[in-house]
Every structure is written in structure tokens, then in C-alpha cells.
Amino acid sequence: MDHSNSISILPKLTLILGGTASGKSFYAETLAQKASNVVTYIATAQSLDKEMAEKINRHKKQRIPTWQTIEEPFDLVNALQKISGNVILIECATLWLTNLFLNKKDNLITEKKKLLSTLKIGHIPVIIVSNEVGCGIVPSNILSREFRQEQGQLNAELASQADLVIFVTAGLPHCLKGSLP
């Protein structure tokens, strides 16, 4: 398998952060496309209501048709271990954490540690998209505050481990760590 193209453009782990509708997903997809035509897209969203189903369909339509898509809302580690390709794009860590938080909260810490360990030992460049949840108001309920805390910790751990961290605002990438490719 030839990783030379993707390795020269992308580091081992790239974290793309941003607010809702900031352009982070589009930027991540553009980055993956520039790195390789052999991309595996891991989608973590679940189609639980009409709005989310429409959003998922929009994302599917804008993806490159040759990309392999794996829909995995819970077991990212298992999905990552099965992939052979040039670039992996995980969309997104926030929905993955939401799925775990609402369904498997007892395993949250373990699952986060497993993901971070798997990303550390992986050999294929990974781009992971995540929402920055710390720029808004303090949520009024405990569940939202707990989630915000968990997401903030996950983002900090991913950023610490990543070689490249980019914050996207209004579709514009701002490099926080590393150098823009």
C-alpha cells in the first residue's frame, strides 16, 4: 500500500475544531481529498430524527464518490483497526462522544482511552473533526454541563496528541499547532 502521497501532506493525527456550521467538515474533507484519493470516511452520526437524516444526506452528497464510508456511531476503535487506505477521516468526535454519553456512559472513560491509544499507534494519517463546545454560554442543565466537560477534555487530549490542530471559523482555517499543509 502506498502511503507516500498522504504522508507527505498530512501528519499522523490532525484535529479539526470549530463551532457548529463553521465549515470544519468541509475543510476536513478538502484536506483529505488533497492528501489522497483513497480515503476512508468514518461517520459517527445517527439518523434519529428528520433534521439529522437531512444533514447526513447532505454530507453524503458532498463526499467524493470513491471514498469508502463506514457508519459507526459507537465502536471507533474497531472501525479504525479494520481500515487499510491512505487517509482516515472521522466525522465527528462530538457525535461519537454524544452517542456514548447517552447510551454507554459507564464506559465513557474507557472508550476515550481506547480511542486515544489506537490513534497513537496507528500508521495511517487520521483527520478527526470535533466541535469546540467551550466558547458558548454555561448550559442551564447538569447533563449539558457534564457533556461540555467531557467534550472539552476529549478535545484537549486529542489536541495534545495531534501533530496538527486547526480551528475553523467562518470557513477559514486557523492553525493552532503544527503547520497548515
Description of the structure:
Helices cover 45% and strands 21% of the residues. It is of the alpha/beta class and 181 residues long. The chain has a seven-stranded mixed beta sheet with strand order 3-2-4-5-1-6-7, with helices on both faces. Helix 3 (50-62) links the parallel strand 2 (39-43) and strand 3. The longest helix has 20 residues, at 142-161. The model is unreliable at 1-7 (pLDDT under 50).
Helices and strands in order:
Blueprint: H1 4-9, E1 13-18, H2 24-35, E2 39-43, H3 50-62, E3 68-71, H4 76-81, E4 87-91, H5 93-103, H6 108-121, E5 126-131, H7 142-161, E6 164-169, E7 172-177
Parallel strand pairs: 1-5, 1-6, 2-3, 2-4, 4-5
Antiparallel strand pairs: 6-7
Pick out its properties.
7 strands; 181 residues; 7 helices; seven-stranded mixed sheet; alpha/beta; globular
Summarize, please.
This protein has helices at residues 4-9, 24-35, 50-62, 76-81, 93-103, 108-121, 142-161; strands at 13-18, 39-43, 68-71, 87-91, 126-131, 164-169, 172-177. With 181 residues, the chain is of the alpha/beta class.
Helix content: 40-55%
- With strands numbered from the N-terminus, the spatial order across the biggest sheet is 3-2-4-5-1-6-7
Number of strands: 7
What is the string of SSEs from the N terminus onward? Answer: HEHEHEHEHHEHEE
